[in-house]
Amino acid sequence: MKKDFSVKTIVAIGIGSAVFVILGRFVVIPTGFPNTNLETAYPFLALISVIFGPVAGGLIGLIGHTLKDFTTYGSAWWSWIICSGIIGVVYGLAGRKIDLIHGEFNKKDIIYFNIYQVIGNAVVWGLIAPTLDVLIYSEPASKVYTQGVIAVVLNIIAVGIIGTLLMAAYAATRTKKGSLTKD
């Protein structure tokens, strides 16, 4: 699927960032561990990244998370903002082999995407985010790596379930490739 940087993509980045903020602020489930929640913004980010590509996914993650932090806490936590951008890119790269636009999202696509997102979430939230917390903010390693492990598990579950359902629902609304119906 071709993912050019069109006006449609730019609009998707703006709207996607706004939805990311709303989901990140108002549709979260606290875990009881400081600043670590089950986030519904990441399944949405996965869907939009697969549809619009890695650049759009990365920008939505960066912009959306930055705005969420400023509107929630009054300041930005750059280590996790950077990681939201990285995970948007990861989801977008996984989407290069998935053709949601033409209604394609079969069992093979679901397995492929979820393997990709599990590895991506593990690396981004389990390694990169906590390491940046230690390097940038001098946070205690035991605290931030615990947060990272919790974030990995929660994001894998959220994206694996909610993200997969969103992609399946989106694909079901699209005209299949080769159909006599015009796109």
From TrEMBL:
Pfam family, one: ECF-ribofla_trS
Main subcellular localisation: membrane
Entry's localization field: Cell membrane
Membrane found in the keyword field: yes
Sorted UniProt keywords: Cell membrane, Membrane, Transmembrane, Transmembrane helix
Gene Ontology CC terms: plasma membrane
Membrane topology note: Multi-pass membrane protein
Domain of life: Bacteria
Bilayer-spanning residue ranges: 6-28, 40-64, 76-94, 115-137, 149-172
Protein family: Belongs to the UPF0397 family.
Descriptive protein name: UPF0397 protein CI088_03585
